[in-house]
Specification:
heterodimer, A: about 325 residues, mainly alpha, MetI-like fold, flat, disordered N terminus, B: about 450 residues, alpha/beta, D-Maltodextrin-Binding Protein, domain 2, 2 domains, five-stranded mixed beta sheet, four-stranded mixed beta sheet, 13 strands, about 50% helix, about 15% strand, transmembrane (chain A), cell membrane (chain A)
Chain lengths: ~325, ~450
């Protein structure tokens, strides 16, 4: 009868008990829910749905900001131009590469840091957490500049400090080629966002019941066995949520590219491509098409994670 | 309970009311500052400099004797970002932009979009008298002067006298790029050029093509699909060849692909310095380094200067032209006063002041007769000569597409294929102008 019954939300559970409709209490709860979430929803629609709709509308036009008179409707032509352009696919490839590298490394490092924080003595735990969080508190542009200055051939210290490494000497131009530029960009991203992933994982670690660990210990399980059979399965939801958030984030990487290479040597990412078409070239139509495609890609990633890997956001928050 | 909720409801309403009245008060204040209270305030959007434009603004405010005051607002550091900000505001009919300091390549785009208030004829007459040709060319669009020439920049060939002597180069005669590359290789010194993927690269390529007798845009048009490029012409191929040869010789240093004007200037102060092409700012920069104790006086004494190198020994060079010209915003509430102010800003005295204090060469030719200028810039006559020969970058409303396409295909410069690269760039830029490809 009512659509709410199909939704496995907390509010609908008592509703199911009363046959033929929601109970008064459920109705009141739903009303309260709307009252509480409604204003936020309205604001969200205003600041996200409206610009997205506007971008989609703009993407159907051939529209240059300095030439508004010649604006003309071109249908999906802008999408055709973008999708048939090798530059778009290159940007997608670079973005995917950065995403995979940074998220993989961050997951391992973040997990290690989470373990350290989890095991640290109660007295130093707050200090440790704050120390680990500092990079995440740094503004991305600032951290990008710091890393750029560090690796710069003229002002950087990396070339002299690490000259004992093979392939590093005073004339190593880190931002001169694709591989080395990407390495520095990934390092900066990893340094900056590992704390975020480690905090999410720490929350997951805290959810693993101590009883299970103790039981496994009594049964003579090694550390590795406990990790694989007890810890990891119990925090799967937390890991998937951390991965989801970071993947969505990493796919929109912009600041580091903007500051370090400005897209030179084939390091352009999708969001940088959108920026250049819209802001630098003032081609509002083409740029909006790139932005809409970027948005759809991000939606697709979220969809694949949530449906494909069955990430349950409610479970990760400890609601069930 | 109900009374409690009522209470919070009321206090929220009071809060909203207070916020609203604050907004009203603030907008009242804003209206007051630009309104009928005092003289009209002209907003001058300036590119960042060493404080010269702010000083000129206050001098002109004094000279106006109460008819107007000039307030300066600083734009971002690099010229593409300056353009982005101004375009965004002007596209939204921003009336707060009265005067703007503009990099010349973007002037056609602004003019074509109708972002400039029309220049009165008598003003055009006055501001183009005794002005170097390149600055007039750079201020013109569609046969009309649309901006007021302010200061004009050009690149010179800077050399270490000792190195040139050791290499046996006669610097009183014009030198070619091939000679310089050879000399730098023989002496194992740097030949500083700007190989970074940015405007500087277009500046270099444009100077090379113009020096070889060609142009990046062979046939200009306001219709983007009608623009004919000259990149794969004979001169274009020759320019690509020179660019590749200089870059592949290794004399540009290991960081050539990220070298900008600042890094070349730093290199030229160092031990491996030989030659560089760069703007006159390197002179006050080196002087400051000597005063600061980071550079030896003997190094400064070793500095020499000449006209920009030639591509072919028998063809006159065409050095880069840059600088700043002043545009008056189309949506300004006081265009007449703004034009009056631009005349004050670009007066001979103010240009002399700006040249000697900030190192930005004047577009006014009479400035170069000033003994103070000659004292601060011994190379001033060379700068003037260079400005008369200088050629602007391609003048088109689609400049960023043309320049962006060049930067994409000509970078890194050491990997240019003189037969293929100009053709690739032509195809790319034409496809981008037809909106069939991204950039």
């Amino acid at each position: 009868m009512t659509t709410t019954e199909a939704r496995p939300t907390g509010a609908s559970v008592p509703a199911r008990a009363a046959k033929g409709g929601a109970s008064d209490r459920a109705k009141a709860e739903r009303k309260l829910g709307w009252l509480l979430a409604g204003p936020a929803l309205a604001v969200m629609l205003l600041v996200t749905a409206y610009p997205i709709a506007q971008a989609f509308y703009d993407s159907l036009f051939d529209y240059r900001l300095t030439d508004p008179e010649n604006r003309s409707f071109t249908g999906l032509n802008n999408y055709l131009v973008v999708l048939t352009d090798q530059l778009w696919w290159q940007a997608v490839g670079v973005t995917a590469l950065i995403t995979v590298i940074t998220v993989a490394v961050e997951l391992v490092l973040g997990f290690a840091l989470a373990m350290v924080m989890n095991k640290a003595l109660r007295s130093i735990r707050p200090v440790l957490r704050a120390a680990i969080l500092i990079p995440y508190a740094v503004i991305t542009v600032v951290s990008a500049f710091a890393w750029q200055f560090a690796f710069d051939i003229n002002t950087g210290f990396v070339n002299s400090w690490f000259s004992w490494l093979p392939g590093v000497d005073p004339t190593t131009d880190w931002f001169g080629s694709f591989g080395s530029s990407l390495l520095v960009i990934c390092l900066a991203e990893i340094w900056k966002t590992t704390p975020f992933i480690s905090l999410l994982l720490l929350a997951g670690l805290a959810q693993v019941p101590e009883v299970l660990q103790e039981a496994a210990k009594v049964d003579g399980a090694t550390w590795w066995q406990r990790m694989r059979r007890v810890t990891l399965p119990n925090m799967k939801a937390a890991i998937m949520v951390a991965l989801l958030f970071r993947t969505l984030d990493a796919f929109r990487v912009f600041d580091s590219i903007f500051v370090m290479t400005a897209g030179a040597n084939g390091t352009e990412t999708v969001s940088f491509l959108a920026y250049r078409q819209t802001i630098s070239r003032l081609e509002i139509g083409l740029g909006s098409a790139v932005s809409v495609l970027l948005f759809l890609t991000v939606v697709l990633i979220a969809f694949v994670f949530i449906k494909g890997f069955k990430v349950d956001l409610a479970q990760a928050r400890g609601e069930k | 309970m109900p009374s409690a909720t009522k209470h919070t409801g009321r206090s929220r309403a009071r809060l909203v009311g207070m916020a609203a009245s604050a907004v009203v008060a603030a907008s009242g204040l804003a209206a007051c500052s630009s309104g009928d209270g005092g003289p009209p305030v002209l907003n001058w959007y300036i590119n960042p400099d060493s404080g010269g434009q702010a000083e000129i603004a206050s001098r002109c405010t004094d000279a106006a004797e109460g008819r107007y005051t000039i307030a300066v607002s600083t734009l971002p550091r690099d010229s593409p970002s300056q353009r982005e900000q101004l375009v965004r505001r002007l596209a939204a009919n921003d009336s707060s932009i009265d005067i703007m300091s503009l990099d010349p390549p973007y002037i056609p785009e602004f003019a074509q979009a109708g972002f400039f208030a029309p220049m009165p004829e008598d003003v055009a007459q006055r501001v183009s008298t005794d002005v170097v040709q390149s600055a007039i060319d750079g201020s013109t669009w569609d046969g009309e002067l649309v901006t007021v020439p302010f200061w004009a920049n050009t690149q010179l060939l800077w050399y270490r006298t000792s190195v040139a002597e050791a290499a046996g180069l006669d610097m009183s005669q014009p030198v070619t790029w091939d000679q310089l590359t050879q000399a730098a290789q023989d002496q194992q010194v740097r030949l500083g050029v700007q190989g970074i993927r940015s405007e500087s690269l277009t500046v270099w390529l444009n100077a090379l093509i113009e020096s070889a007798g060609g142009s990046i845009i062979a046939e200009n048009s306001t219709d983007p699909e009608q623009i004919q490029l000259g990149l794969d012409s004979e001169a274009g191929v020759r320019a690509a060849q020179v660019m590749r040869d200089v870059s592949a010789s290794g004399t540009g240093g290991p960081a050539l692909s990220t070298a900008n004007e600042d890094t070349t200037a730093t290199d030229f102060e160092g031990d491996s310095a030989g030659f560089q092409v760069n703007y006159p700012f390197v002179w006050p920069r080196a002087q400051a380094a000597v005063e600061g104790g980071t550079l030896d006086q003997s190094v400064l004494d070793d500095y020499g200067w000449a006209l920009y190198p030639r591509v072919d020994a028998d063809t006159e060079t065409a050095p880069p032209y840059g600088g700043i010209n002043l545009g008056v915003g189309a949506f300004s509430e006081h265009p007449d006063l703004a034009y009056e102010a631009t005349e004050c800003i670009t007066s001979t005295e103010n240009q002399t002041y700006y040249f000697t204090s900030n190192g930005n060469p004047a577009s006014d030719t009479t400035v170069y007769d000033d003994p103070e200028v000659l004292d601060t810039f011994p190379m001033a006559p060379t700068i003037l000569q260079s400005l008369e020969l200088a050629k602007p970058r391609p003048q088109t409303p689609y400049y960023s597409e043309v320049s962006g396409g060049i930067q994409r295909d000509y970078h890194p410069t050491a990997e240019i294929d003189p037969e293929q690269t100009p053709q690739d760039a032509t195809e790319l830029i034409e496809a981008v102008l037809r909106k069939e490809q991204l950039l």
